[in-house]
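Figure 3 (text version): C-alpha cells given as input.
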C-alpha cells in the first residue's frame, strides 16, 4: 500500500510551472540589480554635474557683484 503512493509520485504540470517560474525569477533578479546600479550611478553623476555648474554660476555671479 505504501509502495503504491511512491510509484504514483510523478511530476505534475503545476510543479513544472512552479519550477519554471522560480527559475525565471532567479534569472531576472541579478540583471535587475545591475540595471538599478547603473541607473543610480548615472543619476548621481548627472546630479554632480548640475551641482558643479550651479557652483560655477554662483561663483561668476559673486565675481560680477564685487
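Below: residues designed for each position.
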Amino acid at each position: 500500500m505504501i509502495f503504491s503512493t511512491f510509484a504514483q509520485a510523478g511530476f505534475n504540470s503545476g510543479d513544472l510551472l512552479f519550477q519554471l517560474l522560480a527559475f525565471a525569477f532567479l534569472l531576472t533578479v541579478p540583471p535587475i540589480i545591475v540595471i538599478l546600479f547603473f541607473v543610480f550611478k548615472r543619476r548621481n553623476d548627472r546630479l554632480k554635474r548640475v551641482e558643479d555648474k550651479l557652483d560655477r554660476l554662483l561663483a561668476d555671479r559673486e565675481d560680477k557683484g564685487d
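The first helix runs from residue 2 to 8.
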